Amino acid sequence: MSLLSLAQALRVSFQNLTRPKNTEPLPWKGSRERAERYRASFALVHDEHGEEACIGCMLCEKICPSQIISVTQGPKAPSAATGKPRGWCTDFTLDLNACIICELCVQVCPADAIIMMRVQEKPGFAREDLLLTMEKLYANEKLAKLTWATPTKLQEMQDPKPKRPEPVAAAPAKDAAPIKDAAPAAGASSAKDAAPGAESAPAAGTTPSKDAEPAKEVPPVKETPPASDAAPAAGTEKPSDA
Amino acid sequence: MTVGTTYETPRAGERKGEVRTVNVGGMRVPYHLTLLERPDPYLDIDSYDPEADLMALNMGPQHPSTHGVLRVKLYLDGETCIKAVPYLGYLHRGVEKLCEKLTYVQITPIVDKNDYVSPMMNELAINMAFEALLKVEVPPRALFIRTVCAEIQRVASHLLWLGTFGLDVGGGIGGGATLFMHTFREREMCLDLFENLTGCRFHYNTHQVGGNRHDIPEGWDQKVKRALGHIASRVDEYEAFVENPIFKARTIGVGVIDPILAMELGVCGPILRASGIDFDLRRDAPYAAYDKVEINVPVETAGDAYARYLVRVREMRESIRIALTLLDGVPEGPISALKPVKGPTNVKPKPGEAYVSIESPRGELGTYVISDGSPNPYRCKLRPPSLHAAALLPYLAPGSMVSDIVATLGSLDFILGEVDR
Amino acid sequence: MMEGGLLFGNPWLHGLIMGVIVLSGAMGVAAYAVWFERKFAARMQNRPGPTEVGYGGLLQPIADLLKLLQKEHLIPRSADRPLFNLAPVLVVIAPLATLAVIPFGPGLVGTDPSIGLLFALAISSLMVIPVWMAGWASNNKYALLGAMRAAAQAISYEIPLLLAAMVPIVLTGSFRVGDIVAAQEGGRWFAFWPPGPGFFAFLLFFFASLAESNRIPFDIPEAESELVAGVTTEYSGMIFGLIYLAEYLHTFIASALAALLFLGGWQGPGPDGIHWMLLKSLLVFAVIFWIRWSWLRYRSDQLMAMCWKIFLPLGLVLVMASAIWVQLR
Ligand code: SF4
Ligand code: SF4
């Protein structure tokens, strides 16, 4: 019997000769399919008026656990497009050497300025290659459609009480939304919240503070479920349309 | 829960018949293990037989089988170990101090790196402690997601353990490497699931105070079902590969831990369960969504490396079952009880303290936090199960050969990142 | 064509030419054995294996060789320099000398003395001395432990190996390898023909030579999870490559001997010749790799216990059984 079990080991390894290869030589040949939410590198984006979206609020610098972002705040100046005064960022560096890809900087950005993208990591040949300066970050913007999480989207996903009745009501007419990135995000959130709204009964027992709110929102939200499939795709493609 | 060995060990052979148990501190402990002779970990080497030609061998910090940077100083008489002294601290990163400096929001991605084989558990433990401080109730959807993730992580962690244990007893250029590659192939599936959920294969930062940061994406549950079903079938294959006379010869009767010693040292998890003590926090002090499922805790009484192997493999199956059961019942609803984080100082608990412990793949992973009302903890003490497992080494190594020490080290499954913090 | 088993009348000329052919052939086989093993193991583990150098990594052994040649040859300060440098050279000499008496086909042999088999086993087991030398000269504890294990293992497994080889010797009545192969004429391979002892002797020979050549499940001297790299811990560059090469040569010789003694050597269905010999020995070689990448490793005391408690008595019984067979025939 015991010798038979030794033969079993031989059988298992022989069986595996016929299985497909499980590894691929990277990055020269083949490539691994990245998950939709994969996050690797950063970009800074322009807003819908073609201005730099970053308002230099330094929140990302403050929250970064590795303290690798440095933002230089510029003086407030009116935006060329809207004329309203807003903050500007004069310098922005992000040191990928020490980044732990925690997504916190993306999570907190109030202006949807910094995003993480689904790109393949590239090895650098010098430390400077991994130091993302402001130019590099803006150059990365052309990859922006590879992103999954804009800050708004992340926050919408986590929000226990989605509190934006206007975008929800305006969800069918997406172009009416004030911020470009927020439009698909709102669409996604409304679609997501639609489902919980419909089935909020089991959740209500343990989260007493919230059972009133979703219940109120159920009627307007219920029309949007068809959008739920398209929402993530819309989120990634919208910036390229503009 | 039945208590008893399912295979013949040298010690079980002496007893014949059913396992007698004695009551130690309310725990049923197999009788034969209470009689074990305990080596003296503080043996004075100078007073040891002066005739013996002892050799001091520094195993580690760079050694293929110390699983990181553990250094064990072995005093060898021939190939038999007389005394073993583990030296810790080569991987000390000051995580507890860092926790005092960072805010509650920033800590999660940092503690990810403690037990770098199951980051999901670190996040869960520390965030549960913060939630206990804040007294927030986590929405059920988040609890279910957390539990499913934790179980998948347990499978991934045990898969990694099985592979590296194969390396330890079977060699990196040999059957062990084949087992290693096979388990990593399946572990990769678990990591792909996490990648789909959180965007990272490892060090996810997906838990936050009050809930989760990422909701389940579309079709994820189908992926989980497919992957876990696949892994369940592959576990049979590992058993066919491993359970043969060679593996048994290397593990049965090796590194026998008596449960009383284990309890004295605070060892828990699969090691304790392999020594005959039926203790599992998931069942005995349910957290997250574990009270929603029935949990069968595998227990073995032999206390040797083979028993630990059996316990872990059964736990893998059990985890797959739990994850699949919970996955069907994930309720709809929000995934976080608090407002989304918009700044580093968003979370500010009232002054107080909390201790929360969870069952990580290695045992009780505890977090003790004291808050003084500021946005960063006043003190954050982590209780890693691996540290206690590493403490067993001076008791297990004396009297065994170098090969057995390696097998014992492997079967204890400690993670140095967690031991040293 | 052959006069007294010589291809070229003059034994000196014959020895020289055959030496060149056999040595270069064996070196090539050893180098490509590494490639084959890497590919084979990789496929078992669902990996692609070497792919970069040449088609399917076929030039990998040459690239490895060049890499090893370029590497610095480090000698630890506390090592015993002369011994440290001498050991790897001696390690290769043992298997290369053994190749002299191993025939790869009718007449394809350096020399076929009347004690050929004895010579082969004796010389190949000499390998343990330079291995011990290397372990001692490295002045490294892991190397020393590995060398001690290697010596203990090689010495004890010498006996079952010899006993297993005794079975074909008894059945043939000659130590000459050529005679042993000739006695297996007509498909009566010793692995199968005297039904009982032959087969078990084959298994015994196979496993004992696994232990002799330090292959899994008996690769205890270089158990890299315990002893880092055993005797080779301190070696680097080409001098490490020599030890590595010697191991592969040793394994190849063991499989060639198994093919000669038990599987009918160069005889086979259809025309006899070197192709059968190569096929059989490479098949045994492949099985060794298959086992190597499928099994785990024994502990050294278990290995010794197995040798003295199982293999040795089995060997004695087999020799007795074959002697009885010869008497009764
Ligand atoms: S993802 Fe990188 S840059 Fe952003 S907060 Fe985390 S560590 Fe800092
Ligand atoms: S990237 Fe966002 S968070 Fe960072 S400074 Fe600019 S606006 Fe503020």
UniProtKB/TrEMBL annotation, chain A:
Q: Name one GO molecular function term.
A: quinone binding
- Compositionally biased, Low complexity: which spans? 169-209
Tell me the protein's name: 4Fe-4S binding protein
Tell me the segments the record calls region Disordered: 153-242
- Composition bias, Basic and acidic residues: 156-166, 210-220
Recorded hits in InterPro entries, A to Z, give: 4Fe4S_Fe-S-bd, 4Fe4S_Fe_S_CS, NADH_quinone_OxRdtase_chainI
Q: Which residues form the 4Fe-4S ferredoxin-type domain?
A: 42-74, 90-119
Statement: the UniProt record of this protein carries the keyword Transit peptide: no
